[in-house]
Amino acid sequence: MSQINNLNVFKGEDGLIKFFDPEEAPLLPLVELPSRLNPYHGDKVRIYCKMMTALPAQNVKALPGWLMSQMGLHHLPRLSLSPAQAPPSFHSRWHHAPFLASRMFMLMHLYGGPAQPRIDDERGIVAKVKLLAVNNEQVFCPSQYDNNQNFAAHIRWTGPQILKQLPEITMFCAGMGSAGCVTGTGSFLKANRPKCTVIGVCNAQGDSIPGPRPFPLFTSVKFPWGENVDHVEEVGSVVSYRLSLQLSREGLICGPSSGMALQGLFNRLGKAKAAGSLENYRDENGLISCVFLCCDLPYQYIDGYFDRLDAEEIHPILDSDLSGIDVHKYDPSWELTSAQVLESVRRHQSCDADAQDRSNTANQAIDVVPHNMIILDLRTSGDFSSTRLIGAINKPLQTLKPASLSPFDDKETLKNQWIELEHGFFDAEERRLGHLNGQYFLLICYNGETSRVACSVMRSKSLESYSCCGGMLEILKTAGEHSALRDQVLQSS
User: What pTM, to 2 d.p., does this model score?
Assistant: First the structure.
């Protein structure tokens, strides 16, 4: 490791390349789990997670991806980004979220057959990708399953970082996918800290977890993982997703393979405690200091949490009955002040006989051509008859009453009003007039909130509409401050 870039600044034309270069980066965080996440804390076991997600590509694969791409003379930082953010191909049975992630990074290929074939199976996707690279010079295949630069990256960076940060380490645990991480890190730690026990964790056979592989498939892996791994633990997907969720909710955001690694560590500690052999792992201070890797983020595996975990483990969405309600856009420019509304109505009355005056004033106040403005008053017919804007049309909203709560303060009000507005409130004739004659709609309610919802709905139907901030209450207040204006714009029964 070269001199650490403590300021974490990467300058120059090659700044992006430096950003991905592990030699230029500060140490990745090593975070001790609080006792509530560590069931062996009372046994003087201290567990740390190495946050490989803090790498530029937020994935442990960034390290071998970088080294393999450099050895392949492909001096492009995106080569370390691609395998790290998402694999270049997905099995057709995978969920929707990783598909979207891969499309975002232009890495999408689907394949069928076994999702996790043997590495040496010529029919499998690993062999097919290699063949693709042979036949297409635009494709670079780093061959992560048999390229020694894979585990060499962890000898060079991951192992030295952990030992520098936690020289008293006595137990290291990592998931096994390509086995590069556990091989390289384990090799370095055993060479420099012989007391350190290395644990490899595989997913249980027939119970897949994104990234790791079941133990029987490692008979075809050529890396010397067997020389560096003292124990192999198998872990199921449900507990892996559960622990990942718990870690993420505590702020250690990580994917299911990280939960799997932690559970594998728990398994080994539990077996040692049951056998009375925990003392064999203690350091000079009587502690057992363990490190497991958080390798990637959970976002592309979101569907898996909902598929595997019980409903009570996933927090329900509060006010879920609003799902699909109030889905249209809002824009502050669609909301007018009461002064703008009153001036527009006044101009509407005074300019009808003067086309030139209309042209000169068309873009003033609210940028609404006055003679094309239709005022729709959503209040009850009784309140409309009592006081209204001159020229307004009463179109009562059945779910709007004088005492109605603001739709933005009460979910039932919002739901009921939005459904009424969305489904047939504005009839075909009004929509036809708005589209064909270029009409502008001004919507009035009691306090301006319901008319904001109505405006959003009408805009979604391509009807240019405005609402009044504060509604009729604010209009009356403003008009009362200008008595001469009041008689020009308001009408009472």
Answer: 0.80
